[in-house]
Amino acid sequence: MDFLHSLFAVSAEDLLSTSVLVLLLVAAWGGDKASRAISIVAFAVLVGAAALAVPALTAGAGGAATSAFGGHIKLDAFAAFAKLLIYVGSGVTLIVAPAYFDRFKAMRAEFPLLILLAALGMGIMVSANDLLTLYIGLELNSLAAYVLAAILRADGRSAEAGLKYFVLGSLASGILLYGISLTYGFTGTTSFDGIRVALGTGALSIGATFGLVFVLAGLAFKISAAPFHMWTPDVYEGAPAPVTTFFATAPKVAALALLMRVSLDAFGGQPGAWQQIVIFASLLSIVIGALGAIGQDNIKRLLAYSSINNVGFMLIGLAAGTAAGASAMLVYLAIYVVSSVAAFVVVLALRDEAGNAIESIAQLGGLSRTRPWLAAALAVVMFSLAGIPPLFGFWGKFLVFQAAVQAHLVVLAALGIAASVIGAFYYLKVVKVLYFDDATDAVQGREELANRALLLGSSLFLSPLGYLLTPWLGNLAGSAAAALFHFA
Amino acid sequence: MIQAIAFYLFATMMITSAIVTITARNPVHSVLWLILAFFNAAGLMVLVGAEFIAMLLIIVYVGAVAVLFLFVVMMLDIDFSELRGGFIRNAPLGLLLAAVLLGELVFGILVSSAGDLHIAKAATVAATPAGLSNTAAIGALLYTRYLFEFEAAGMILLVAMIGAIVLTHRQRGDTRGQNVSKQVARRPQDATINLQPEVGKGVQL
Known about the structure:
The complex is a heterodimer of chains A (488) and B (205). With 488 residues, chain A is mainly alpha-helical. Chain A has one domain (2-484). Chain A is built from 20 helices and two strands. The longest helix of chain A has 32 residues, at 156-187. Chain B has 205 residues and is mainly alpha-helical. Among the domains of chain B are: 1-85, NADH-ubiquinone/plastoquinone oxidoreductase chain 6, subunit NuoJ (Four Helix Bundle (Hemerythrin (Met), subunit A), Up-down Bundle), CATH 1.20.120; 132-168. Chain B has helices at residues 2-23, 27-47, 51-75, 80-112, 134-142, 147-168, 180-185, 188-191. The interface between A and B is medium-sized, with 41 and 27 residues.
């Protein structure tokens, strides 16, 4: 009966995997003609999985009710919060993808299936409570992501992005696996609770330290934190725009949530050992993200550097090592996902008369006169990403810095605020091009109705109206973060 | 005593063949040395009593993976002299980096002598329960404690399969596939015609 209980507890994963298997048969017989129908069903499946994950948001922080498969899986409020964000990111990708690929006559029936499989892997990642589960979930997600990056076979840049992502991702997986094996060797267990007990709070043996460093390095690659960020601009630029939308949202949430659980739970008794690594990666990401973006003319590369920069800010919350920091990080993550969705829906709408994508920022000159609403939406996103106060992006940054200051990391917070001023420069540069440069009239494409609705919804969320959501979002993030600090 | 001799034999052979794998100039030789390395690794696994993993190494790595490597290497038409030129140009930098890594490693070891160094804790439980063979013990764990991971690994293999098909399979216009129902439905009178050509005229088809 324990097995049945476990199977019931992972009902969201059950739903995802069984529907993937059924839809795979539909894809095999229906071919690429069925891809639109499969996308719609896949979206419905994601909604269903989200509905199955919601009860865990409030179902209590820990204990037997949240643990499944002998403690290898933990279905607490934290996992549910991350899963909801993951399903939002995957669902948005399914909405924007068909129209994009249809323009190239390259919509594949396997595309929605790979998104669902990646979502399954990410769900496993965020609820992993064992190093083995962590690795299996991560690989499921990564393998699907490599294929997604290269899915436009006729496009050389897409193939290049897929190959680059694959080679560097495999290297990172190897580093992570090496760290996992060292950790297992020096603690004698792969379970997070067991590692926490085995490491204790005293001095850390050098082998366990090496294991911890390698695990963090492998995960830093997956969240594209500096100094493991090199793949991000190339992959973001080369991958098809809907796939980039996906990469910027769901896998980022999953890897960050995983990093939080590993640091705060498995290595939670040894904050001194990882705090300096996280602070280093955080500052470096903020600075590299801000400086690297300045010279970019390609909007997808710019958004890639922006994502590196934002990951740096989120890591400040992790560096604090407190429940307040984790909660701030989750709020920031939610806002960041919506910002990315809005930014990439705008990128998808940037097309010339022939339907070719416009990626050069210089060609966006005077967009405010030809396409005022699109320009306004992009301006809202840029202001929000820069953290300019009336917009919602400011709230995430504020919470993160507040948590850092409360944890006596005043220097880190001060450096972060200083670097965010540098970052504001290139966000504002885009707004300047949109509103004050001579009109180039390059952008001609009309966005689809669904994309328009997405853009409207996400812009409203990022606008000052988003502050109406702060109590609700704060409560959810708070209970999710509390679950993270609830130890068996 | 004999185990120790066997261990050092396998270990030296394995390290030697691993080194030759990456230094051999001919990639086919590299693969052959790699097979030898796998084989010695299997020998080491037998020595520690993990006969199941040893068999897996032989069957999967030597039997399938290495042979696949060999096929791919033989099929690829690579200009190896060019690759070698690049290696020699990059060698000084590589050696410099290696020296730095070595220096850091030595430094790390010296520093660590100042503190306490724990190597693995003494095993409190036997690797396999009494009365169970290695294979049975792994199987029992796979289907009970690690059931979720085992099933999820199945999904990973599914992704790998879908990915390989998505990225390589394409509809080609110039292939002539077999249509079985069309073949079966074909009747003799549709396929053959009787002609009576006049002498010296030939047949116009």
